[in-house]
Amino acid sequence: MSTPHFDRIALIGIGLIGSSLARVIRREGLAGHVAIATRSPATLKRAEELGLGDSYHTDLAEAARDADLVIVSVPVGSSGEVAQAIAPVLKPGAILTDVGSTKGSVIAQMAPHVPAGVHFIPGHPLAGTEKSGPDAGFAELFRNRWCIFTPLPGTDPAALETLSAFWRACGSNVDTMDPDHHDKVLAIVSHLPHIIAYNIVGTADDLQTVTKSEVIKYSASGFRDFTRLAASDPTMWRDVCLHNRDAILEMLSRFSEDLASLQRAIRWGEGDKLFDLFSRTRAVRRSIIEAGQEVDAPDFGRQQAAGQPKG
Amino acid sequence: MSTPHFDRIALIGIGLIGSSLARVIRREGLAGHVAIATRSPATLKRAEELGLGDSYHTDLAEAARDADLVIVSVPVGSSGEVAQAIAPVLKPGAILTDVGSTKGSVIAQMAPHVPAGVHFIPGHPLAGTEKSGPDAGFAELFRNRWCIFTPLPGTDPAALETLSAFWRACGSNVDTMDPDHHDKVLAIVSHLPHIIAYNIVGTADDLQTVTKSEVIKYSASGFRDFTRLAASDPTMWRDVCLHNRDAILEMLSRFSEDLASLQRAIRWGEGDKLFDLFSRTRAVRRSIIEAGQEVDAPDFGRQQAAGQPKG
After folding, report:
1. Nearest-CA neighbor of A16 among A111, A142, A122, A123?
2. Which of the four CATH numbers 3.40.50.720, 3.30.700.30, 3.30.70.270, 3.40.50.261 does domain B7-177 have?
3. pTM of the shown model
4. Tens digit of each residue's pLDDT, chain A (311 residues)
5. Sign of the dihedral through C-alpha B192, A268, B109, B130
6. Cα–Cα distance for residue pair B203/A252, rounded to 1 Å
7. Contact at CB, A196 and B259, closer than 8 angstroms
């Protein structure tokens, strides 16, 4: 399996994902030239200060011109607009991909603009942290994470293989699925958890009987685990909610139904029912650790992160 | 502030909290003799293999006899039974405390059994991990965490100060509050987060459209954050739900109300409303980090915990 090499890669959007790509592309030598584009002059300036690429553009088309690989890493609500801006300059044989968390909506927005001869292969690396912006990226972000492609009918297998090899070189495992199934899977593994986290942090923030300073002070007893997801980029998550609406509403209904049943068990003192649920969920974490998708250290390994010796 | 020293400390219950206490008591030299008691012969044997104490008892009263400090670390539903078992042997002047996550219920269960002359001071160290049992404990568990006392009217200030000094020597910060207020605070910072985490993991586990193996494989995109709390001890959490029912039901109602409103905003495409909530919650995490109750490393510092170099 040879390492892929592109003469010119254009990164449209240089936030957490885009800037992590820039870093790993450089480290692995995956491109002759990395063209970085964002409409925000301040963000572009920061990317240049960090030396993330070889050329810097506020004009998206200028970056995409002559690129062999164009990676769009913007909030999903901006996908259509970006596709429209860069489509006219895309060269035949180029691969166009994205990193958006919703695939049905991104395809609907982008596909109509893609010229014949350009390989549009929607993608989604399941990687991220609660930080955003060009400073937040790091080359290891994709390591041992999954990148899911949702190829359209008639996709050139060679182009898909080239893109897969690129993501493997970035450290990812790759997978393909139907866009609709992707959107259902992500609704449960990613979108619902973020929405629930945002909601519980909002609920706590609104209380009068318990002060905000108490919530903060005593957060280590559980609450703080939710604050990481609830610190994620608001623009990105607003767009996800608006662009994967149906799958999210379906998962929210199931969640609320289950919560009502749990609430009833608490109200009526059904200890066995509570014990059964609380035992079953323990096994799920064990499986995730065994699948190499989570650390086994207690408390997510925060102790080590804080530099605290373990007694 | 001198380090407190007790001739004999009895640890009733030797799970995560009890065994962490045993370790820090030894390290800091806080007792002449540590008597360890649990009704489970297997757990007691393990505690002895680990060398956690100086004497080992399946008879709780035997451990508590002549102790200057008795710390009850059992699921809150067993508090009354434990108090009844040890009450007859408690010596005058001894301090009796607990570590339970609910205080109103523990006081109702234990106080009636406490003989005159014994200082019963309910307590709750806000510390823990998702692991349980005597192997899971470590001496650093309480470091920089809060221990909340909910003293009863007429509590001897000297006894409270002695117990506070003990917990400070274990690494904790100490605080006092009314039991009823404690139960409300914990309902939001600890109990609701655990219940929500258990619930979402249960919901995901029940899906048919998305397979269990997909949930596990792609969990790093958000879901896995919930699995830590949902891997907590089922007996402990069943008891918490049953013993802080009213405060938990109140918080669940607020949470569900807020979630219904958020769900409506998603259904009707109210982007500004979503953006406002998602921005507000970001600030909460910042405050928790500033309060020293959370690490600032992305992803809870999992990268470091997994021994992955940062690129």
Report:
1. A142
2. 3.40.50.720
3. 0.94
4. 568 899 999 999 999 999 999 999 999 999 999 999 999 999 999 999 999 999 999 999 999 999 999 999 999 999 999 999 999 999 999 999 999 999 999 999 999 999 999 999 999 999 999 999 999 999 999 999 999 999 999 999 999 999 999 999 999 999 999 999 999 999 999 999 999 999 999 999 999 888 889 999 999 999 999 999 999 999 999 999 999 999 999 999 999 999 999 999 999 999 999 999 999 999 999 999 999 999 889 999 886 666 544 33
5. negative
6. 10
7. yes
Residue range A181-297 forms a domain whose CATH class is mainly alpha
Chain A neighbors of B263, CB-CB under 8 A: 249, 252, 256
| Distance linking the first and last C-alpha atoms of chain B | 45
Ranges of CATH 1.10.3660.10 domains, chain A: 181-297
CA angle A101, B227, B199 (to 5 degrees): 90
Q: Which residues of B1-31 are buried (b: 16+ CB within 10 A; e: fewer)?
A: eeebebebbbbbbbbbbbbbbbbbbbebebb
Q: What share of chain A is helix, strand, coil (3-state, %, to 5)?
A: 55, 15, 35
Angle, CA A31 vertex, CA A25 and CA A36 arms, to 5°: 70
Which tokens is A218 given? 């005593």
**CB-defined contacts A:B, below 8 A:** 401
B92: closest CA of chain A, how far (Å): 34
Interface of A with B in 193-212 (CB under 8 A): 193-207, 209-210, 212
A178 touches chain B (CB under 8 A): no
Integer-rounded Cα Rg, in Å, for chain B is 21
- Spell out the residues 6+ positions from residue A6 whose beta carbon is closer than 8 angstroms to its own: A30, A31, A32, A67, A68, A69, A166
Are A284 and B204 an interchain contact pair (Cβ–Cβ within 8 Å)? yes
CATH 1.10.3660.10 domain range(s) in chain B? 181-293
Closest approach of chain B CAs to the CA of A151, in angstroms?
19
Q: How far apart are CA A220 and CA B292, in angstroms?
A: 10
CA-based max dimension of chain A: 67
CATH fold of the domain at B181-293: 6-phosphogluconate dehydrogenase C-terminal fold (1.10.3660)
Flag whether residue B50 sits within 8 Å of chain A, measured between CB atoms.
no
Q: According to CATH, where is 3.40.50.720 located in chain A?
A: 7-177
Contact B245/A232, CB-based, under 8 Å?
no
B264 touching A, CB under 8 A? no
Q: How far is the alpha carbon of B252 from chain A, nearest alpha carbon, in Å?
A: 7
